[in-house]
């Protein structure tokens, strides 16, 4: 395919196809990311970044593109990926840079990858990792991150099925197993029996386990886990430090220790001005929204929560919605929110679980996880 910005046309097998502007941009985006699946939300962000269309907008444009390209199915087709969105599958090779990447450039790219990930810059990460001009070969960690960013849990589990990775299935397990006591037990077994690195240990202990202890009605244990990690950190630039403070604020709110929660949220706001981590900032906005609802301003509270959800979309870390929706499920009832607001976010969380087919993946999650303990 040869794209021409002049007139928004694309040359396919020697035939010029005329497109509308957004059709052209959508097809070009899918072409530049040949073989990668994108959710409707990701396509909206990529093609309609400053507009407010609906998911139906993407479907309509895909329908028209398929119709205009129907004569060229032997070259490529836009496929629907159930529970996720769409991807372009080309039978012709996409031009790639044949020149080997110098070792120094690869090293700098890897350092940039780590920085983008630390600051929650998921979209920048995706651009870096999928940029064919750079010609970078992805390592296993980077390929895994790309699947996380897209909430493509099925492909993620498939990729890690023979790797002995306990971290991914364990994190997902809590969202598909209704027996929270069992979830906690499995977490502790993994921490005790499976060899994991320090980052994974902290993720499991603070991101996951502390959440489930809160759900189980043991917030004091959650707070103990989080505070223990905070006390062990000597540098605020430690990658987990902002999240630990967000989590501490959430636990204090859950315990109805509102004065402490407000102080913790204020301190975390100051911290995130110095360290603008998008993921953690999105969670902080949600907590600030909950405080507004608790203070009687539900309209302003929902606006702040929506700001948080918007930051997740901006960050490109869609998997973080797992954490956000669980947090809202735990904390909204404590905020005094109306039934309508609680139901709205419960349904949003259920839609996300449905779109990512997470419930259907429970047997695969359990199989991979239980084989390791």
How would you sum up this structure, described in words?
Helix content is 63%, strand content 7%. The protein has helices at residues 21-32, 40-47, 55-68, 103-118, 122-130, 140-149, 153-160, 167-173, 180-193, 198-215, 219-231, 241-254, 258-274, 278-294, 298-315, 321-335, 339-355, 362-370; strands at 2-4, 9-12, 15-18, 38-39, 76-81, 85-90. The protein has a 3-stranded antiparallel beta sheet, with no helix packed on it. The protein has a 3-stranded antiparallel beta sheet with strand order 4-6-5. A hairpin with a 3-residue loop joins β5 and β6. The longest helix has 18 residues, at 198-215. Mean pLDDT is 86; it is low at 93-98.
- Radius of gyration in whole Å, from Cα? 22 Å
Strand content: 5-15%
User: What order do the SSEs take from the amino end to the carboxyl end, as H and E?
Assistant: EEEHEHHEEHHHHHHHHHHHHHHH
Secondary-structure-based class equals mainly alpha
Number of helices: 18
Sheet with the most strands, sense and barrel status = 3 strands, antiparallel
Helix content: 55-70%
InterPro entries: OmpR/PhoB-type_DNA-bd (IPR001867)
Pfam families: Trans_reg_C (PF00486)
Keywords: DNA-binding, Transcription, Transcription regulation
Protein name: Winged helix-turn-helix domain-containing protein
